[in-house]
Amino acid sequence: MNWTRIALAALAAGIATTLVDFVQHGMILGPTYMRLDEVFSQTQASPAWFALIAITISFFAALLFSKTRGSWAAGWKGGLAFGFFLGLVGFFQGFYDPLVIDGFPYYLAWCQGGTVLIDSLVAGSVLGAVIQS
Questions:
Q1: Start-to-end CA span in the chain (Å)
Q2: Residue 75: left if φ>0, alpha if ψ -120 to 50, beta else—which one?
Q3: Residue range 23-35, pLDDT digits in tens
């Protein structure tokens, strides 16, 4: 296992998902979040925290991908398949939010599930491109 390649892949995937999240949550879903101020009422966090968390999650995804690399197709297409299955886990986890957060609309669980799936597809593609078999 090449730890340098895993770290570089995690960094690249973390940066890519941070940029995708900025578009998805900041530009596309941002007005929805502002409209639901009774649900999203906390103070804003530093964008650096979002990037750090994305890189950390990407590190563990890169580790899992590296360990299972032989199971996936070569290149970014194998990473895309990995990202799809990884994204399904997050997609269905999102349906927990309407059950435990008062006022969280059910339709937003579908939206956020889609954003998680897109994030995972992007991250998986980057991982597949960087971590070769």
A1: 11
A2: left
A3: 999 999 989 988 9
List, in order, residues 6 or more apart from 42 with CB less than 8 Å away. none
User: What's the full length of the chain, in residues?
Assistant: 133
**8 A C-beta contact, residue 51 and residue 14:** yes
pLDDT score of 42 more than 90: no
Tokens 């990037």 sit at which residue?
51
What is the three-class DSSP state of 98? helix
> Across all residues in the chain, what is the average pLDDT?
93
CA–CA dist 68, 70 (Å, integer): 6
CA distances from 121 to 34, 63, 70 (A): 27, 16, 18
